[in-house]
Fold:
Amino acid sequence: SSNGPRVLYWFRTDLRIHDSPAIHHALSLEPSAFIPIWTWDPHYVYRARVGPNRWKFLLESQQVLSDRLKELNPKQKLHVVREGPTTVIPKLIRKWKIDVLVFEKDTDAYAKDRDKEVFEKVGALSKELGREVKVVTTVMGRTLFDPDELVKKNGGKPTMTMAQTVKAAEQIDPGDGGKKGEPRRCLPTPTWLPDPLDPTEMDLSSAAEFQHEVPDRKPDVNEGQRGLDKEEQHYENVAGPNNDFAVVTLEEMAIDPKMAMTPHKGGELEALRLLKSYIDNEEYVGTFEKPKSSPADFEPQSTTLLSPHHHFGTLSIRKFWWDVQEVFEKRKKAGKTNAPEPTNFPGQLLFRDMYFGAQAALGWAFAQTQGNPIARFIPWHLQSNYSDSPVGEHLLDGTYNVDDEKAEEYFRRWKEGRTGFPWIDALMRQLKYEGWMHHLGRHSVASFLTRGGCYVSWERGAEVFEEWLIDHETACNVGNWMWLSCTAFFSQFTRVYSPIAFGKKWDPEGHFVRKYVPELKNFDSKYIYEPNKAPIADQKRWGCQITGDGIDTGTEEMAKYPKPMFDFSEMRSFCLDKMKEAYGAHLYGDDPKVLSGEWKKI
Ligand code: FAD
Structure:
């Protein structure tokens, strides 16, 4: 309405218009103007640990969102603002005379700090302006249940098991007439949008406070990363070089598009299309059990690959939940049984909520061992500080021992997919090139890097996943790494994945290895998981010699692939001994001995 409030809508991890509680709320205010923005969050834009594939996925998602907004109102679009939120939002509120700022709640540790700062700054501005600027921060849309509520119902403690999570959820009233323990029902997709302000009022090009220095990035092709060390500064308007608030391109971000080769597409339309394709297949949805899905399947993979859409909010998690429930109901009526929790789809989504609940309770401490009360302390090689965290920054003193040097090599070879174990290398190359890996593949490589092979700290592995996954989600990534390394959630460290037998069990012919480690594509199935055992003459005949450390990849006629970088059974026993010792010591990340570094002397 013409005398309604001016609403600034801040998109973050909710890049969609369907089932969006925060948009729903914003529109219920009957705004006279509605300005949807995405700000250049420094956490995202200026940190190196977002690989090219995730950038591509994000930009695609933004472009689709912008188009969707335009469909609802031709004057609308996603307004991308090239400055961090804590500084630019107060300036925008002042310039555009905004009355209400609305955004979806985010319980990540970083997001909580950032949002608190925005809240405080807008409060101060409100006083200065002598008029009320409201900030609506309480609407949750990222998870089935509000993680803070889960924690509250779990006695203030992190949700560490599925049973705790379900029990806590059962005490939460969805508030829409539904049963306790059920997620809220989906909200309708808007069919219209109010206008933004008129173009002259929107224009920021003449206001000095919106001109600022930005780094002019040069791509660093070797690293496949944005070359953060090669920055030059230049001036730019926060609305972009053409003053049109456009979605940036990979080229503008100095990301070589050749480094962003993921076949997985971003955007709400693709997410809805994918979901529908599964939902239409009632048999698949009704019988899906995660442990029975193959990590070796590709094109198509055996699970949904909806995880990046959940991360960016291009798919509502509750839509997934309720669409699956509908299929379950239909099948029940037809006398068919559905797969049980937690291995079925609803169970998968509940695992996600469990990790969000654990993170919400612990904040920054959740993402690392130091200071983390739930993280069992294991004196891994290459102990690291989860570098986003302000907790315990002094703890990494950089002392290396001989084992650490060896471990550094194992770590690098694991990261680059040249361990000499084809199953592990295929998975790591799939991750690097495509940004996604099946859950059991993640199990294999995470167990291999930590307690079942290299004995390297899980935090180093989590950092690599953070960079390369298109679905990277701190709560899920860190939670699962702690699970796999027997640091938290799971403790049966004697159950180790073999880097040979596990792949063979799923894919005896080695199709997956042949796809991602193509230098081995001609090898006989008998040797595909242990190519070093093939006779030299056969290696030559099949066009790949098993030699070296994988840096020299040979020639087109005669490739080179490395021998296993260590004897797996030797390393497995080494790890088992270490794990037994660590479990015997009963130290956790918040123990004074751990915090002071005294453990090194133990
Ligand atoms: P599906 O099997 O189709 O499951 C449907 C949805 O359920 C997923 O999209 C996801 O949102 C959720 N889900 C499924 N399994 C899990 C799980 N174990 N934990 C949390 N949520 C789950 N998942 C992420 O979303 N982001 C991460 O950064 C991430 N890092 C991981 C790191 C390790 C070491 C491991 C072992 C797992 C990690 N996972 C992560 C969990 C899981 O592997 C992925 O969610 C899943 O493989 C995504 O593929 P999908 O969408 O086809 O899953």
